[in-house]
């Protein structure tokens, strides 16, 4: 990423000035008597980077620019790292700093750093978005060139592109159950589904068949129903499992599915309607709710998903549910709320990071 960032700043008409600290690059742009300086620190390359060392570098750059005709010097610090938590405590209160997370290829700004700096913020965000995996996966290795760091990059690359086993397993079980239903009956026969684990409030409440709160998630009413659900689960479930881990993903998926089933039953009992419910959509809407929370916590982007994309998906899905027949909206909304709540409880990485950052100020 060192060469890529150099190309970026040169392309923005900044000039690079030499510093004698390995892992630090400085770019300056002069606008009349004001000098705008960006100090780029490559965290994994600089050994023993402390607040005192960072302040010393900043003072030297400022002094150099003032001695060369700048009446005023504005400094923006930019930390490039694969571990944003390691930045905690390096910068003093009042200093401007942004973080480039090389793992997720994104620009991180905290509550007191939300402003812009010579129009660079949006340009950096767009640049990181388009460089994508090239910047994120290979970033640290390009800087250090050491075998140990290269192995870290390889591991990160494998993490990014590996299949999420729990999500894949759930999809395969759904497909297998559908095939069995077609072999021994029909996935579009309501009574066949009811006899083989579909959710019905009367069966659960009156006969105690609570197992239906789980089995209904693996039954689908026809190939189109299965295909639509599995496609959504393939993309969103994969993203969520990578963010929260295997065990938490299973807890969230089944927890949201069960709570979605309870919401569906409660609504049908309230309106005194006999209904048979099948499908993974309640659990999938739980995944959607959790993904929305993860995106919000990560400042509007996780991998290729953004706040706008996920909320458009939610809005269109709910609208489609209310304008179509045979859709269990209670399960969908209940599952989404359950997933959002479980996401808040299970995904806490960036909340901890923010608290650590505040404590260092």
Short description:
The protein is 59% helix and 12% strand. It is α/β, with parallel strands linked by helices and 361 residues long.
Keywords:
59% helix; 6-stranded mixed beta sheet; elongated; 12% strand; alpha/beta; 14 helices; Rhomboid-like fold
Descriptive notes:
The protein has 361 residues and is an alpha/beta fold. The chain has 2 domains: 2-161, no CATH class; 165-349, Rhomboid-like (Rhomboid-like fold, Up-down Bundle). The chain contains 14 helices and 8 strands. It has helices at 2-11, 51-67, 120-144, 147-161, 165-184, 190-195, 201-207, 212-215, 223-244, 246-270, 281-297, 307-322, 329-346, 349-360, and strands at residues 15-17, 24-31, 34-42, 72-81, 97-101, 106-108, 301-302, 305-306. The strands form 2 sheets. A 6-stranded mixed beta sheet has the order 1-2-3-4-5-6. β2 and β3 form a beta hairpin. α1 runs antiparallel to α3 (120-144) and α10 (246-270) crosses α11. The radius of gyration is 26 Å and the shape is elongated. Mean pLDDT is 83; it is low at 133-157 and 350-361.
């Amino acid at each position: 990423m060192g060469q890529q960032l150099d190309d970026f700043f040169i392309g923005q008409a900044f000039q690079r000035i030499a510093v004698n600290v390995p892992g630090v690059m400085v770019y300056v742009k002069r606008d009349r008597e004001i000098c705008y300086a960006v100090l780029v620190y490559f965290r994994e390359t600089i050994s023993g980077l402390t607040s005192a060392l960072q302040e010393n570098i900043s003072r030297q750059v400022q002094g150099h620019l003032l001695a060369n005709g700048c009446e005023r010097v504005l400094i923006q610090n930019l930390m490039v790292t694969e571990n944003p938590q390691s930045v905690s405590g390096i910068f003093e209160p009042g200093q401007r700093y942004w973080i480039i997370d090389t793992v997720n290829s994104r620009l991180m700004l905290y509550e007191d750093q939300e402003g812009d700096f010579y129009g660079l913020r949006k340009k950096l965000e767009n640049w990181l978005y388009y460089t994508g995996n090239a910047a994120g996966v290979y970033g640290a290795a390009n800087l250090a060139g050491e075998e140990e760091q290269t192995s870290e990059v390889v591991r990160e690359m494998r993490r990014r592109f590996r299949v999420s086993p729990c999500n894949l397993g759930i999809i395969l079980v759904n497909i297998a159950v559908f095939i069995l239903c077609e072999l021994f009956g029909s996935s579009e026969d309501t009574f066949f589904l009811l006899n083989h684990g579909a959710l019905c409030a009367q069966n659960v409440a009156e006969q105690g068949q609570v197992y239906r709160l789980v089995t209904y998630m693996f039954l689908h009413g026809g190939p189109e129903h299965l295909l639509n659900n599995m496609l959504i689960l393939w993309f969103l479930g994969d993203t969520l499992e990578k963010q929260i881990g295997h065990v938490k993903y299973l807890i969230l998926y089944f927890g949201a599915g069960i709570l979605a089933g309870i919401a569906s039953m409660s609504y049908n009992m309230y309106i005194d309607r006999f209904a048979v419910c099948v499908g993974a959509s309640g659990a999938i809407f739980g995944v959607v709710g959790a993904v929305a929370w993860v995106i919000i916590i990560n400042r509007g982007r996780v991998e290729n998903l953004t706040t706008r994309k996920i909320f458009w998906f939610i809005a269109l899905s709910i609208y489609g549910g209310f304008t179509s027949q045979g859709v269990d909206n209670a399960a969908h909304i209940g599952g989404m709320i359950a997933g959002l709540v479980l996401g808040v409880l299970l995904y806490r990485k960036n909340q901890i990071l923010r608290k650590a950052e505040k404590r260092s100020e």
